[in-house]
Amino acid sequence: MQKLSLDAQVRDHLKRAAAAATGRSAETVYGGHEHVLRQTLIALTAGTSLTEHESPGEATLLVLHGRVRLTSGGDAWDGMSGDMLIIPPARHALEAVEDAAVLLTVAKH
User: How many CB atoms lie within 10 A of CB 34?
Assistant: First the structure.
């Protein structure tokens, strides 16, 4: 069995994002290309976004810290710490409304 402190990871990646020119930091915390399930911690500074991109398959975002906005087409969903957003199977973007960290979970078929 393995154990990972997401709280510690969030603190670390928020610091990394603040120091990065891009305003973001990310790390796969479980899985990867050799697994069906992949979980990636993403930290973004306020106003930073992941521009519109294709849906990776079945995916969710668990907001661990701060506030984010997920957009797809003309729709938008706001999430704050503790919220889980279901990523639509369409092009979408993510913006940090305030400094934020999310856990992206993707299940690839």
Answer: 6
